[in-house]
């Protein structure tokens, strides 16, 4: 224990001058520090605050700023294409999802109704069910007395009608997909024309003269491409959904005909 205390005392004696010299050097540096150096910390937080303010800009504010920089005269038509295209796409998505039917469950109900109450009971089941598949079943059951061939023809004919209803509105989405980049490129051309007009009027090529026109050109092009990409995603989803519904209609129609043949109801 005594040895340990002696070691601590020896260490204190050895390092005391070093600590004292370091403290004196720090005090001397603090006293000799020039006045302009004290002003620098005050400027630093201002720069940091400016950077924080720029980073805190919301996505909506950034989009609004770029919209104004791209000139509302050229950006507004592109924005209208986006709004109208999204409106049509959302309407189609809602309609297609509501048109989706559990075909297996519907076929089971129709078969049970045929066994228990005949064709009239089966028609009541299909009329009370929403969706294009149920509508096709209703048309086919209404022609059961005319033979199986008439049932098949009725299903095929009415299936084409239902397919046309499902595809309603897709042509408008396709129009806006094509129109948005065209409007963006038109803004690009007009912006470049304005830039060259500025060069011609000034008689000299200066970055400040052409920067405004080139910026408008690039922003309108980007806006048109972004709108086209967004609407293309919705369009492809709608097409895939329609293909799925059409496949369900075809499979369910074939199964319905098999059920009618199985129960021999075409002649009753």
Write down how many β-strands occur, each being a DSSP E stretch of 2 or more residues. 0
> Low-confidence spans: pLDDT under 50, at least 5 residues?
1-30, 32-54
Class of secondary structure makeup: mainly alpha
Radius of gyration: 38 Å
Strand content: under 5%
Mean pLDDT: 76
Oligomer state equals: single chain
**Number of helices, where a helix is a run of at least 4 consecutive DSSP H or I residues:** 9
What is the helix/strand order? HHHHHHHHH
Signal peptide: 1-22
Membrane topology: Multi-pass membrane protein
InterPro entries: ExbB/TolQ_transport, MotA_ExbB_proton_chnl
Transmembrane segments: 74-94, 170-196, 216-235
Summarize the structure.
By secondary structure, the chain is an all-alpha fold. It is built from nine helices and no strands. The chain has one domain.
Characteristics of this structure?
268 residues, disordered N terminus
Explain this structure:
One of its GO terms (cellular component) is plasma membrane. It comes from Algoriphagus yeomjeoni. It is a multi-pass membrane protein. The chain has helices at 2-32, 35-55, 59-69, 72-98, 103-127, 132-142, 148-166, 170-202, 207-263. The protein has one domain (76-268). It is 88% helix and 0% strand. The chain starts with a helix and ends in a 5-residue tail after the last helix. With 268 residues, it is an all-alpha fold. The chain is built from nine helices and no strands.
């Amino acid at each position: 224990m005594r040895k340990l205390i002696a070691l601590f005392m020896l260490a204190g004696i050895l390092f005391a001058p070093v600590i004292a010299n370091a403290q004196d050097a720090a005090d001397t540096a603090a006293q000799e520090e020039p006045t302009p150096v004290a002003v620098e910390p005050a400027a630093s937080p201002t720069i940091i605050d400016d950077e924080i303010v720029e980073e805190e800009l919301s996505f909506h504010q950034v989009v609004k700023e770029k919209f104004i920089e791209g000139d509302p005269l050229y950006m507004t038509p592109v924005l209208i294409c986006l709004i109208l295209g999204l409106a049509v796409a959302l309407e189609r998505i809602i309609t297609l999802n509501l048109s989706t039917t559990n075909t297996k469950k519907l076929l089971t109900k129709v078969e049970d109704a045929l066994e228990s109450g005949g064709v009239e009971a089966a028609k009541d089941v299909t009329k009370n069910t929403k969706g294009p598949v149920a509508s096709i079943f209703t048309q086919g059951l209404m022609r059961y007395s005319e033979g199986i061939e008439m049932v098949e023809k009725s299903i095929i004919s009415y299936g084409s009608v239902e397919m046309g209803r499902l595809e309603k509105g897709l042509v408008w989405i396709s129009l806006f997909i094509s129109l948005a980049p065209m409007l963006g490129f038109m803004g690009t051309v007009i912006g470049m024309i304005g830039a060259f007009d500025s060069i011609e009027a000034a008689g000299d090529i200066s970055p400040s003269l052409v920067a405004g026109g080139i910026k408008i050109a690039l922003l309108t092009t980007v806006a048109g491409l972004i709108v086209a990409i967004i609407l293309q995603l919705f369009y492809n989803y709608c097409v895939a959904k329609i293909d799925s519904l059409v496949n369900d209609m075809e499979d369910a129609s074939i199964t319905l005909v098999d059920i009618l043949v199985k129960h021999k109801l075409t002649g009753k």
